[in-house]
Design a protein that fits this description.
Number of domains of chain B: 2
Structural class of chain A: alpha+beta
Radius of gyration of chain A: 24 Å
CATH topology of the largest domain in chain B: Rossmann fold
Largest sheet of chain B: 4 strands, parallel
CATH class of the largest domain in chain B: Alpha Beta
Low-confidence stretches of chain B: none
CATH topology of the largest domain in chain A: Fumarate Reductase Iron-sulfur Protein, Chain B, domain 2
CATH superfamily of the largest domain in chain A: Alpha-helical ferredoxin
Number of helices of chain B: 14
Radius of gyration of chain B: 19 Å
Helix content of chain A: 40-55%
Distance between the termini of chain A: 25 Å
Oligomer: heterodimer
Strand order of the largest sheet of chain A: 2-3-1-4
Largest interface: A-B, 74 and 68 residues
Shape of chain A: elongated
Strand order of the largest sheet of chain B: 2-1-3-4
């Protein structure tokens, strides 16, 4: 699935006006380049390029131009309809896939990238390529720590952590969650606890989770549970709020509206 | 007397009960009044946001609607509640379409939120509204020579809500100093403890906790302080599992910053929930346990 890529281009300053002219002429000679416009600010030109497959060969072609000093991806939009990308963009936090520059700082910052099927950078590349199943059935969201290190470092202010959460929600809705991680199951029990009581009952959540996913793990966790009980940190009974009817009304009305936006 | 609405969060009733107790205990010396938000519900945290975005925002916003009636800043000691409630606020401002939907859903539950509540973390309130000078003046029991590793974790400083630097925060270090203690260098002070992945992906989370304990103890820390109930649980309750898995011998008490403040203010250990810690802080704190009155 191809994309329309907008490149910001800085021309070689030392070459002056001639460098600019050379860059412009060279760019217009590349068949994939649809249009070139001059801009003011940190960059000199913006080129709209049709990228049928991979962006790197075309970026390299642009960089071969002697008048071009530096390029950066400004925005990526699908060439053909990309329903998956549209779905992702419609969720708060998901729209950043449009302006990710694929620099990879998110992947380099992630404490858990080694455990992921696809790094955060690759997840965005796959969304742009319309690969719904690959993305939603990957374990990447399930091992995301929500530590927000990628988010604060992203030079494009892509909310990568939020994107991960949005993708996990989509995976749950489409029933595609990876069997390699039980994080979505843990989340489900957490949410169910809120739906029932308005608050999370940690003991109930943990018991239900371990019984569902791995009763043997429950035995391994017994010392932890005992420590919590002995130190008065694990009430046996759940506390219910008075406003559970309000919670119920909120959930029912949300579902009428079709869930996530 | 400074007055706030108070959002304790679910942990304060269970794994983080000592956080709730010690927060209440230091209010008086700090001349702070925290009025618990009546009938608050769970903020939804990361799990709800990863399940259904719209529902998650509405569930979080119920609390904001309840708090708006009181007209005070809403203070929470939990980093995850702080992030989640702030996120609801900012998403409602950023996405008008979302706001319309949330308004309609809340109306079905008889609620209305105009968007005026400021959500703040307890640590931020204590540092900015009370201030180090006032804290210093309340110290009866200077913690001279105690080496403390200030652990910030993730969601207190990230994503950036303006409280402190997202990667090299300093405010808890200053707080430790104002109590007379010595903040130790702690290179991993804002690295992740694994959060709730301790339940679903324990191998990953235990490895992260090990690194944190190592970093703190290599730098000479006698105890760690945190500002998040989940961080405290992972570092304290699971320390034994880390030792068993990695053949390590860590025995570092992990306190809430509010407990350390209470000790310096001369409040007795029981009133600060010190008995709730799995790794006992008795030995480390013995020289400083002078009870007031």
């Amino acid at each position: 699935m191809g994309n329309k890529v907008y490149f910001m281009i800085k021309t070689a300053e030392e070459a002056g006006k001639e460098g600019y002219e050379e860059a412009l002429k060279g760019l217009e000679a590349i068949p994939e380049v649809e249009s070139v416009e001059s801009v003011s600010g940190d960059y000199d030109l913006v080129a709209r390029v049709d990228v049928p497959k991979r962006v790197v060969p075309i970026a390299n072609k642009i960089l071969e131009n002697g008048g071009v000093k530096h390029i950066e991806i400004l925005r990526v939009e699908p060439l053909e309809p990309n329903p998956f990308m549209e779905e992702v963009c419609s969720i708060p936090g998901g729209e950043g896939v449009l302006w990710c520059a694929q620099c990879g700082l998110c992947s380099a910052s992630c404490p858990n990238v080694a455990q992921m099927d696809y790094s955060p950078r690759k997840i965005i590349a796959l969304i742009r390529a319309g690969k719904r199943n690959e993305v939603l059935s990957s374990n990447s969201m399930g091992v995301c720590l929500s530590c927000y290190l990628c988010t604060v470092r992203c030079p494009r202010e892509v909310k990568i952590t939020e994107l991960m959460h949005a993708l996990e929600g989509l995976a749950v809705r489409h029933n595609l969650s990876s069997p390699k991680t039980s994080t979505p199951t843990m989340h489900r029990f957490f949410v169910n606890s809120i739906k029932r009581n308005g608050r999370v009952h940690e003991l109930g959540l943990m018991l239900r989770f371990y019984l569902k996913t791995n009763p043997f793990a429950a035995i391994k966790m017994l010392p932890v549970a005992l420590k919590l009980l002995l130190h008065g940190r694990m009430p046996l009974r759940a506390r219910k709020i008075k406003g559970t009817e309000q919670i119920k009304a909120i959930i029912e009305e949300s579902q009428v509206m079709g869930g996530a936006l | 007397m400074k007055h706030y609405s108070y959002f304790p969060g679910c942990s304060s009733e269970a794994t983080g009960v000592a956080y709730g107790i010690s927060t209440q205990a230091i209010c008086e010396p700090l001349e702070m009044e925290l009025s618990e938000l009546e009938d608050w519900n769970c903020c939804g945290s990361t799990p709800y946001g990863s399940t259904d975005e719209l529902e998650a925002i509405c569930i979080a916003t119920r609390n904001l609607a309840l708090a708006e009636e009181k007209g005070l800043d809403l203070v929470t000691p939990c980093s995850s509640c702080y992030l989640t409630l702030n996120r609801a606020n900012s998403n409602l401002k950023l996405y008008p379409e979302l706001k319309d939907n949330v308004d309609r859903i809340l109306a079905a539950a008889g609620l209305k939120y105009r968007g005026t509540v400021r959500v703040r973390h307890l640590a931020e309130v204590i540092v900015n509204d009370i201030g180090f000078e006032a804290i210093e003046s309340r110290v009866m029991n200077s913690l001279d020579g105690l080496k403390v590793a200030p652990y910030y974790g993730c969601q207190l400083v990230r994503p950036e809500l303006g409280f402190d630097d997202p990667e090299n925060p300093q405010s808890l270090d200053r707080l430790v100093e104002s109590l007379g203690a010595e903040p130790t260098p702690f290179p991993l002070k804002s690295r992740c403890c694994g959060g709730s992945l301790m339940i679903s992906e324990p191998d990953i989370a235990l490895g992260l906790v090990r690194k944190l304990l190592e970093s703190a103890s290599d730098n000479g820390a006698e105890c760690i302080i945190t500002a998040c109930p989940l961080c405290q649980t992972n570092l304290d309750v699971y320390q034994g599992m880390v030792n068993a898995k990695f053949k390590t011998k860590f025995e570092i008490p992990v306190l809430f910053f509010t407990q350390l403040m209470g000790i310096a203010f001369g409040i007795n250990g029981k009133a600060l929930g010190l008995d709730k810690g799995v790794i006992s802080a008795k030995r480390v704190l013995k020289p400083f346990q002078v009870v007031a009155k």
